[in-house]
Amino acid sequence: MELLLEKIGSNLKYLREKLGFSQEFVAKELGLTRQAIIGIESGKRKIDSFELFSLADLYGIEANEIISGKLSEIPQFEMAVMHFRNTEKLSEQSKKSLLEFKKICEDFDSLKRL
Fold first, then answer.
1. What is d(CA 29, CA 47) in angstroms, rounded to the nearest whole number?
2. Which CATH superfamily, name and number, covers 2-69?
3. Alpha-carbon span 34 to 32, nearest angstrom
4. What is the C-alpha to C-alpha distance for residues 94 and 53, in angstroms, rounded to an integer?
5. Start-end of CATH 1.10.260.40 domains in the chain
6. Helix or strand run (H / E) with residue 76
7. Rounded to the nearest 5 degrees, what angle is found at the Cα of 39, between the Cα atoms of 56 and 25?
């Protein structure tokens, strides 16, 4: 269990840093303390399912991807979409445009592999 907590914590820290979020920002968004985020990221504090899903939503990723650790497989354009989605208060039109951009990038990535 401790190894799983450390793996999840490490994955969460990687995502937080990749997105440029501070521990303070994440703590505030989840209604936790910075110490709680430090504990989760170090694997010293258990994370409940609500916190895991809240972090996944904040980071724009599926919870199972955090657990599995397949984070290096996330394409760069997906990371860009995750960042924009979570750092700005976007209008509905902007959200729609961002999803369209994501689809175009996915289509391009698929065509590139042909």
1. 16
2. lambda repressor-like DNA-binding domains (1.10.260.40)
3. 7
4. 24
5. 2-69
6. helix 76-87
7. 55
Per-residue pLDDT tens digits for 37-74: 999 999 999 999 999 999 988 887 888 888 887 766 66
pTM of the predicted model as reported, rounded to 2 decimal places: 0.68
What's the token pair of residue 59? 């980071």
The type of residue at 96 is K
Q: Are 61 and 51 in contact (CB under 8 A)?
A: no
Q: Which one, of 39, 37, 32, lies nearest residue 2 by Cα?
A: 39
Name the token pair of 104: 């175009």
DSSP string, 18-64: HHT--HHHHHHHHT--HHHHHHHHHT-S---HHHHHHHHHHHTS-HH
- What is the C-alpha radius of gyration for the chain, rounded to an integer number of angstroms? 15
